[in-house]
UniProtKB/TrEMBL annotation:
Role this protein plays: Catalyzes the reversible cyclization of carbamoyl aspartate to dihydroorotate.
Dihydroorotase catalytic domain segment(s): 47-234
Record has Transferase as a keyword: no
Residues where Zn(2+) 2 binds: 150, 177, 230
Listed SUPFAM superfamilies: Composite domain of metallo-dependent hydrolases, Metallo-dependent hydrolases
Record flagged with keyword Zinc: yes
Protein's name in the database: Dihydroorotase
Residues at the catalytic site: 303
Organism the protein comes from: Micromonospora craniellae
């Protein structure tokens, strides 16, 4: 096992110091360390953060290996500065049994680039009719704690209640894709002035807000933990703010794209901007950014959603919703928040690790901490090139945009997964 000596690294923006990484942990910190056996990383100008943790990644395996595999998605994650990702259950077959979640977990171990924590489905086949084997998934080798039908909403309030009650026994979480399906039939984009002009069927903000309002009340009623996926509207933020003020056990995420892009992008009719929930308005973006800063929104999660060329480069109405996110998330966070390293570490590493119960992750790089960490060069501005991405898919909405920050190195349990900006394996 290699040891690494980082020279003159800034831990979360603090004055430069040396860090020694040995035996999977941060062994020492201080000026002028020496370790003859260690590989030296000259880290002047680089910032060390705890390895990022993504609570919402679509890895597509099993079933759509033409769009992504556990291995390609893991490489994409490591290159984005992640050391752990939670893999959504909408695979084929669906991750609704102990067998499938164990398969995904094992593939993650074999790839060895990030810790892959499977999320289990709430309902059998994501069909919204019968509860899946939540207990068996929790007891499996994958030790599932988060359950989600993401891609679909658990729309039936009685099923939602039973799911929340069921996971309470092991302090599990139901992660809801909040979308009242009766209000979004045929929806193509955000319902508003732009959808009217383009003549596309709208996805109204209230379809999200109504489900979040219902679910925080259900979570309050049964005393269980609710997590709200990809919050996208100013109204949702207000519902969450009130629920949190009452002490409801609810956490929430926002995606990088909902922090940066608006529904005006649909004017291009380029399906790379089609996503669910849809891109909203500048007013929503302002509310989401403020909520991310004040903590009503707990975390940034990517909703990394790879899709093949066939599923994306077609007419808008036929295209699948979803965007790549893992390799650009930190740059978007830097763009939106500025070099607020402590806030970035909290929203992209510590808090998601806490929510998911990933106890080895989300620790600031300090002596004794597991060496799951990332080195960032904040001074670099880079042009996003889809062809250069490690993901098997190319559907990034940031193509040819110039964004701040570059991931220089990522370490998982003290071993480099990324060095000099390149994946190690
Ligand atoms: O845009 C989306 N894509 N939203 C979802 O909820 C699912 C995801 C996917 O699986 O592609
Ligand atoms: Zn979703």
């Amino acid at each position: 096992m290699n040891s690494y000596l980082f020279r003159n690294v800034s831990v979360l923006g603090a004055a430069p110091t040396d860090l020694l990484i040995r035996d999977g942990v941060v062994a020492e910190a201080g000026a002028g360390l020496s370790a003859p056996d260690a590989l030296v990383v000259e880290a002047d100008g680089l910032v060390a953060l705890p390895g990022l943790v993504d609570l919402h990644t679509h890895l597509r395996e099993p079933g759509r290996e033409d769009a992504e595999t556990v291995e390609t998605g893991s490489r994409s994650a490591a290159l984005g500065g992640y050391t752990a990702v939670c893999a959504m259950a909408n695979t084929s077959p669906v991750a609704d049994t102990a067998g499938v979640v164990e398969q995904v977990w094992r593939l993650g171990r074999e790839a060895g680039l990030v810790d892959v924590q499977p999320i289990g489905a709430v309902t059998v086949g994501l069909a919204g009719e019968r509860l899946a084997e939540l207990g068996a998934m929790a007891d499996s080798a994958a030790r599932v704690r988060i359950f989600s039908d993401d891609g679909h909403c658990v729309a039936d309030p009685r099923l939602m209640r039973r799911a929340l009650e069921y996971v309470k026994a092991f302090d599990g979480i139901i992660a809801q894709h909040a979308e009242e399906p009766r209000l979004t039939e045929g929806a193509q984009m955000h319902e508003g002035e732009v959808s009217t002009r383009l003549g596309l069927t709208g996805w109204p903000a209230v379809a999200e807000e109504a489900i979040i309002a219902r679910d925080v009340l259900l979570a309050e009623h049964v005393g269980s933990r609710l997590h709200v996926c990809h919050v996208s509207t100013a109204g949702s933020v207000e519902v969450l703010r009130q629920a949190k003020a009452r002490g409801v056990r609810v956490t929430a995420e926002v995606t990088p794209h909902h922090l940066l892009l608006t529904d005006v992008r649909a004017e291009t009719y380029d399906p790379v901007f089609k996503v669910n929930p849809p891109l909203r308005t500048a007013t929503d973006i302002a509310a989401l950014r403020a909520a991310l800063v004040d903590g009503v929104i707990d975390i940034v999660a990517t909703d990394h959603a790879p899709h093949t060329v066939e599923d994306k480069e077609c007419e808008w109405v036929y295209a699948r919703p979803g965007m790549l996110g893992l390799e650009t998330a930190l740059s978007i966070a830097l763009d939106v928040l500025g070099p607020e390293w402590d806030l970035i570490a909290e929203r992209m590493s510590r808090a998601p690790a806490r929510i998911a119960g990933l106890t080895e992750h989300g620790h600031d790089p300090a002596p004794g901490a597991p060496a799951n960490l990332v080195l960032v060069d904040p001074a670099v501005r880079r042009v996003i090139e889809p062809a250069e991405m490690a993901s098997r898919s190319r559907n990034t909405p940031y193509a040819r945009m110039t964004l701040p920050g570059r991931i220089v190195a990522t370490f998982l349990r003290g071993e480099a997964t990324v060095l000099d900006g390149k994946a190690v394996k």
